[in-house]
Queue: 2 jobs
Job 1
Amino acid sequence: MTNSLTQTATRAVGIDLEEGMDLLRRMILIRRFEERAAQLRASGLIPGFLHPCSGQEAVAVGVCAALGENDVLTSTHRGHGHLIGRGADPARMYAELFARSTGYNAGKGGSLHMIDAELGFLGANGIVGGGIPLATGAALQLKRTGSGAVAVTFFGDGASNEGAFHESLNLAALWKLPVLFVCENNLYGEFTRQNEHMLLENVADRASAYGLPGVVVDGNDVLAVRQVAAEAADRARNGMGPTLIEAKTYRHKGHFEGDMARYRPKEEVESWMKRDPLVLFPNVLRDELGATEESLEALRQEVEERLSRDIEWAKEQEHPSPEDALQHVYVDSYNGRALR
Ligand SMILES: Cc1ncc(C[n+]2csc(CCOP(=O)(O)OP(=O)(O)O)c2C)c(N)n1
């Protein structure tokens, strides 16, 4: 049984037009960042895999909008949206994709491993479920130091089958850790539909086995996600422990860039495309907050120009030198203590 805090989708409740436009700007930035990255990869500029999150933008932006600057996050192999949602610099993200030394991981990590410690972004992670125990450990430290901050971890429906997920939920519930477990349920784990890898319909139902609340939310409704995340963060900050949030959403593209996704029924794709968060939210802004068509178009244009500048900057950056391969292999000190 899902122990629900909030299940209803909000409309334009509790925001003004400027705030709403900010949320939309960030969602468009994520979508266009990835669409342009896909073009750049096709033209040979980006080595390695890209796992696009098109369709899932409202989860990243909604959750990040509910957080404070001291909160920390971990992400997944599908992490571009989480980084941009948190305010990372797209120029440095492109530099990382182009394997340049000014990129987020000095050009050595690529799409799957971006970190921005200044933003409290403790890392995207190529290991499915790998970020879950990291965020749980971070939450333990946040609690011990009485920081009042929370940790958030994003993961997929597939990752909720991993042992690390179950161990983390158990300990986090037991120790009342300030952590938000955010499952982006996009219906597929790689090429396997949810009903072929688990019997439950709701990942959120797994929460009750560990004694914490599980909440299902419409993952394509940015305001509903923001509200649920804000409530869960509030509980966590007040010593009431973790929440499992399941945001039901859909990835528009294949598992990775280049996957034609023929395993998905056409009707399923079409019905979810009608619920594209980048269609739903502009409608809310127009119908309820009076956004004009011109202002929405100006926003799209602004994002486009910004990304063009970011890409040009990233293209001009240097590649790491061969000697740089020997840097960042070991940590030299911890809290000022030499380790070697
Ligand atoms: C521990 C581990 N097992 C398997 C893989 C291979 N793998 C990469 S992505 C993926 C599917 C993950 O599905 P889900 O957690 O639902 O995330 P989504 O891709 O849907 O965002 C798998 C099995 C991996 N990277 N790590």
Job 2
Amino acid sequence: MAIDSVISWGTAEVVASEEVAEGVRRVVLAPDRPVPARPGSHVDIRLAARDGEPGPASLTRSYSVVASEDGGRRLTLTVQLADPGRGGSRRVHALRVGDRLPVTAPLQNFPLGVGAARYVLLAGGIGLTATIAMARTLRARGADYRLVLAGRRREVLPYLDELAAEHGDRFTLHTEAEGGRLDVAALVSEVADGAHPGRTELYMCGPIAMMDAVRRAWADAALPPTNLRFETFGNSGSWEPQEFRVRVPRLGTTVQVTPGSTVLESLEAAGVAVMADCRKGECGLCVARVLDLEGRLDHRDVFLDDDQKAAGDRLCLCVSRVAVPDRAATRPTDTRTTDPAPCGVLTLELP
Ligand code: FES
């Protein structure tokens, strides 16, 4: 299947913006040069800082296309405001009808296959946005599919009524608040013990911990690796994003990485050229060597394997971060303090 990977920038107007769940906004864009988006597509958008807003002047972020209507004249995105207000999501939530912004034509690195005997779509939290259009397409095809959504509580999950109405008992919701935590092992066993284990494809998007657990269970069950597909952006790490410092001794450079920006963006903003391509933790081009570390690495990529991540001697600059776990655990209990908590420090050798 063709993959739309050529980046073509244009401009779009915001034609709708509304809250569809707690902290989740639906934003509809009308591109000047419409291109229909296939299931699993995303767009990159550039988000400018508003007056006085901290962080980089421009952030580029990827968001799944939840719906593509009228030949791509209306592209629906759905964005969760990340705590503590990561830059990209905060800027999307600030968009209003009539705003114009740079947007790419739909890009595709999570294509929906054809011809599988069965499909399982697994979403964790706002990762749902990568699977909604797939579920709609599979239903239209008359395919055998399941849509499984796992989240903390239903109030923060968008479109639940619509999904239940559209997909009936093919849609399953697990929420921790209702004691319905997703059992990854059981889900994968169901595939392995099902009628077509070798012809069942599983597509997933959600927290990195969930996807890692599925990948391990999938391998343990000896299911075909090519039948397991995933979308990576929007991954949450093990800790909430914190501010930390990055040092590059060879260049004599030190930059501060805010919760709303990445190491890659912060280095680029300081004029440091870094090799990068996907900017989503997939290609490995931006992997840098860790020379020293104060804090813990919070890997958010899917490029490094478990052993490489455990070794702690490299990281993907485009998505991975540094956290001081105790600091995360105590934040933000006392707003009267001026945050004396320790800050992570990462010393790097660039690729
Ligand atoms: S640019 Fe591809 S993994 Fe970072």
